[in-house]
Amino acid sequence: MNADAQALLDRVRTICSALPEVTERLSHGAPTFFVRDKKTFVMFHDHHHGEHGIALWCAAPGGVQEQLVETEPDRFFRPPYVGHRGWLGVRIDRAADWTEIAEIAEEAYRMVAPKALIRSLDESKP
Known about the structure:
- There is one protein chain.
- By secondary structure, the protein is of the alpha+beta class.
- The chain has a single domain (about 5-125), classed as Aspartate Aminotransferase, domain 1 (Alpha-Beta Complex), CATH 3.90.1150.30.
- About 40% of the residues lie in helices and about 25% in strands.
- The protein is built from four helices and six strands; from the N terminus they run αββββαββαα.
- The chain has helices spanning about 5-15, 65-70, 100-110, 115-125, and strands spanning about 20-25, 30-35, 40-45, 55-60, 75, 90.
- The chain has a six-stranded antiparallel beta sheet with strand order 1-2-3-4-6-5.
- β1 (about 20-25) and β2 (about 30-35) form a beta hairpin.
- The longest helix has 15 residues, at about 5-15.
- The mean pLDDT is about 90.
């Protein structure tokens, strides 16, 4: 992984690690973030099979993938393998809005986290 990709991964790691009970490990060769070491919510890909640059694959609510891919196809895409389940691909190697990336990661977390962890997350916010 080159220095630019490592810097992006470090930012993603900071965002995801701030959420309750998140772990990280390689899954299918990619740094992947899990809730309670079980449910995947974000994957980091560095030119997966030569496609999509540096990107995140994130769990997403129904309809979000279609809407964002249609309105901003340069930034959002339907990722292979998980796109059919509604997951969203997000390019982060082009002037990423890190506030938006944090919101996308949190929404992905909320898609798979148990209710008790979502309550904990909500209670920790000012």
